[in-house]
Amino acid sequence: MKENDHLVIRDLEINDTAHLVKWLSDPRVLEYYEGRDNPFDKEKVKEAFYGPRGDEVRCIIEYDGKAIGYVQYYPIEEEEREKYGYPVEIVYGMDQFIGEVEYWNKGIGTSVVSKVVKYLLDVMGAEKVVMDPQVRNERALRCYEKCGFKKVKLLPRIEWHEGVYEDCWLIEASKNESVEV
User: Would you give the DSSP letter of residue 77?
Assistant: First the structure.
């Protein structure tokens, strides 16, 4: 996927291990992704990001040729769809982070999310794209709302993060509600 001359989303490669270790050992990134009490070393990255995980597609976000973040997307399995009220639809989930903090608050995350959502809806045939960000992650929620996501359901105390269960929002985007950014 290519957004413009600056932004490229490409498949994760083994050479990206060092980027993931750097990002996932930075407390500023871990505050919202995995937890500051859960830093990653090389072995943990290899286990979490390079092992088999079904139909999950793992990608690196590049900006001006520099790896700056990570995005993954995957079809939501039937059992989980039914649990959250999506019994017959084609639903994809996605997760992402900008690991190079100097690239935060520049609209890059909004461009990435918009691009991946458009791809999932237009190319992969998704009827909905869902995520479950923590309620306290206001910056991410603003980004997702700019990309057409709507809050569907509060998921109380669902994600173990830094020693407590955090509330998350189930949010969704669909073809007729997504926004081009």
Answer: P
Q: Which long-range contacts (CB under 8 A, 24 or more apart) does 37-41 make?
A: 37/162, 37/163, 38/162
Residue 142: how many CB atoms within 10 A of its CB? 11
139-170 pLDDT, tens digit per residue, is: 999 999 999 999 999 999 999 999 999 999 99
For residue 65, the enclosing domain spans: 7-174
The CATH number linked to 120 is: 3.40.630.30
Q: What contacts 130, CB < 8 A, 6 or more positions away?
A: 76, 84, 86, 91, 92, 93, 152, 170, 171, 172
Domain total for the chain?
1
Global confidence as pTM: 0.92
